[in-house]
Amino acid sequence: MSATTTPTTTPNWTVENSAELYDIERWSDDYFHISDNGTLLVSPNRNRANAIDVKELVDRLDQRGLDLPILIRFNGILADRLKRMNDCFAEAINQHGFQNRYCCVFPIKVNQQRDVVQQVIAHGRQYGFGVEAGSKPELLAVVAMTDPDMPVICNGFKDDEFIHMALLAQRMGRTVIPVVEKVSELDLILKHAEEMGIRPTIGMRVKLATRGTGRWQASGGYRSKFGLTVSEMLAQLDRLIELGMGDCFQLLHFHVGSQVGNIRQLKSAILEASRIYVDLFRRGAGLKYLDVGGGLGVDYDGSQTDTDSSMNYTMQEYANDVVYHVQTVCDEAEVPHPTLISESGRAIAAQHSILVMDILGVTAQGKFQSDLGELPEEYEQPVHDLWLSLDSLTSRNIQQVFHDAQVSLELCMNLFSGGYLPLEQRVIAEDLYFAICHGIQKIGAEMGELPDELRHLDRTLSDIYFANFSLFQSMPDSWAIDQLFPIMPIHRLAEKPTRHAVLGDITCDSDGKVDGFICGGKRSRTLMLHEHTVGQPYQLAVMMVGAYQEILGDLHNLFGDTHAVHVDIADGNVKVQSIVKGDTVQEVLGYVQYETRELVDKLQEAVEDALQRGVLNNEQAGETVAFYEKSLGNYTYLSHRKAAT
Ligand SMILES: *Cc1c(COP(=O)(O)O)cnc(C)c1O
Hints:
The protein is an alpha/beta fold and 645 residues long. It contains 22 helices and 23 strands. The strands form 4 sheets. Strands 4, 13, 14, 15, 16, 17, 20, 21, 22 and 23 form a 10-stranded mixed β-sheet that branches. Helix 4 (75-96) packs parallel to helix 5 and helix 4 (75-96) runs parallel beside helix 11 (315-333). The two termini are 37 Å apart. Keywords: Decarboxylase, Lyase, Magnesium, Metal-binding, Polyamine biosynthesis, Pyridoxal phosphate, Spermidine biosynthesis. It comes from Rubripirellula reticaptiva.
């Protein structure tokens, strides 16, 4: 795989500098690295020799006529995540001599795309893994898609139909276990089981006293929406035992919330649940499975801390803790070790997709002018003062110059509002002011440190890079919960990036921006990017968008689903396994009840009208309608291709 063009390089800057700047080693989990040509590489099995060049791939897709933005899913990463879950638990089970097995059930709410679920099923099969459904539609999808012996766990609130479906599957011999979230659901299970003449397999979710921390802490604890309190559970167990059905209660479940950053919370939840498990077992429940729910985090920002976008533990440590604590509690109580289940969704899916988007243009905040020449004498005094400030700027007086410049600019604006400063002088004043700010920023960069009050300058002076994507469609958690995702260019990484940037999307919403980044080892308000030249492609990737982002994304401004391609690598060859085309204009309009036929008819009428009035000729009328019809079938995002009729 050789690049066709020789990369531009910067003296004293290497791809290692880029790797460090974008913190790749911290968050990449060995899946991502940089080629000697300065392009982004993906190694789905973490073997550097086996790499997919993202830039080459994107160029190939462009030749096929596929426009950016494109979501790229690396099937090999999904396979590797599943393998790692299995390996980590196998290691822990081995180490501790645990007397049972582990099973991961993938909660499809994390990413229900058929291609994704199929991959998870195909690669999880060899480890005996299963899936989790949290609603009727999810259950109906997985009941048909899974193998006969694959476990399916059913969480979420359930009605008659949901439970009937689960029991129909049980009657077919499938391991489809409904987890009781409310007492009334157990009533339904017992009713349907009796009608169908089967002995049901039942799971129950317990409300633990332990709460998670962070964003989703309300998923656990006494006030959680879900599950039975311990006292309710005891009452229901007594009821089952009375019916001679204690053995039907086979699975105990809990879930403390997603992206648990601190391992201590998980530990206490596991301990508490294990105690409940052994007590229920000894009271006569036929428990076989302990399901520890989700919560296993992903280190989005690579900081290895218990902050919202990170976690202070590894997958191996998680596996060790689950196995060790369950085993210790069971051994103490002389209760057989359960089959361990975890519903890890984010940890399986997050890394496997990236969104590649192109930069459309840049708005710079003022420019750095070193030689402005002399000002005409008749210019107002504060404009001259700005000029003098700029002229006098040195590393020793930056703070004073900055204060003077602020005062002068304010005076200029007051004069302007009062009608005493002509427009062209105002423009010069603003140019001078920003030139001073840029000058201070440059001196700061050379000194390595700016005084506190000037630290915001990087952000104030940053360029806005407009990227061809919708934040609301493709990374909603950046907007909704301020989650960080790593973002970096997919090429030019052998060149030094010199611009401080924030990203703007193409929605007409001022919230459609990204101004939190992982850059230079910390959370940063700007991202270093390369100078953008109009007409030259400049492409960025948002990493780790495989969990939750697709399904939570919405149609703000009617930007639809992006194209998605599934890619894998075999024997060094990169293969595009499938291309799922994104929404067309006509499809997104259909979601909000516009019918193509009616739209075209209406336009046709308007064109007819114009024809009658003599403002269009027949050829122009035909061209207008043909163009409209064709546009309805196109991608909702901006295209670099020439509009053709
Ligand atoms: C959302 C959810 C999960 C998935 O959690 P992750 O943190 O993504 O692994 C698992 N179980 C239940 C009950 C959930 O609601």
